[in-house]
Structure prediction request, 339 residues.
Amino acid sequence: MNILVLGGTQFSGRAFVELAVNSGHQITLLHRSKQDPGLPSQVRRLIGDRDPEKGDGLDRIKELIDSGERFDAVVDMCGYTPRVTKSACELLKDATDLYIFISTISVYDKDPQSLPLNEDSKKIVLGDPTVEEVNGETYGGLKVLCEQVVIDAFPTNHCIPRPCVIAGPNDPTDRVTWWARMLTTQDNLVIPNDPAGHASFIDSRDLAAFFLHCATNKITGIFNTTGPETELTLHEFITRSHNALGSKTNLIQADQDWISSQDVQRWVDIPTWLPDESQYMHAISSSKALSSGLKNRPLEDTMKAIHQWDVDRGSPELKAGMKPERIIEIVQALSTSQA
Prediction:
């Protein structure tokens, strides 16, 4: 297959490109950075910004189309605003058999809904649909608008995966990596007492495999892509990760209100632990994707791979979660409160 990837130098995009090349497919990659992203040498790289107001990246693709090239599939990893997404769709609507647009479960409205959420659940509506600043308040709503742009341009040949938190080697966010690091370096770790809600994430390699499966089988539609398994609790995630990593860390359960009183924020300081009002994000059904070919590997395999990658990269300072010194302070404060 001849596949065009927009973005794709980091994380799940990188995993997809590596998998596709190793599977014998021809990959053309449009990305902004002139630096070598460490991708396979077989990749044809086009350098440029896809935003027509900022660069000429789409012109590089147009040159290929004008020369008679056609793509079996396009994988759009970096469409964040409807204007920029529309520019790519207009260029490619007659030049590909399938347009795969990577969206997010953040498209779902935060108002209480029937759980688990499915692909038809209520989505966010932006108050100002012309906004282009992508932040925590606009990200989900902008993705909703981008999805509609794709559907309008490719009414019968769109594929829109909506991933949850993505984990695995090369993760630039360090959210799940924080757990692998802390469980292999800390003597003690305070965790919220049970029940503490659920946990969900999808391995970037499983997500990449689903993208390729959809591309090669011309699978269309919208799919929640979550994992690693249904109704995984936070405590099950922690305990099984602890066992998989051969961790010697002493896990100390503490009252959740007490943890909050120590100025510890869910999700920010303890990644994966969502506030009660956001727990619905861990209750999103991926049954449609599973029946269409998504396969999730055991969480133990993901955690081992993350740990090995983290060690191999030299264990740099993490971008997410509490720092080790802060963890020690929390442990000491809990010990004092119980004395």
Remarks:
- The chain has two domains: 2-163, 175-200+231-282+298-333.
- Residues 2-163 form a domain with the Rossmann fold fold (CATH 3.40.50.720).
- The radius of gyration is 21 Å.
- The chain has a mean pLDDT of 96.
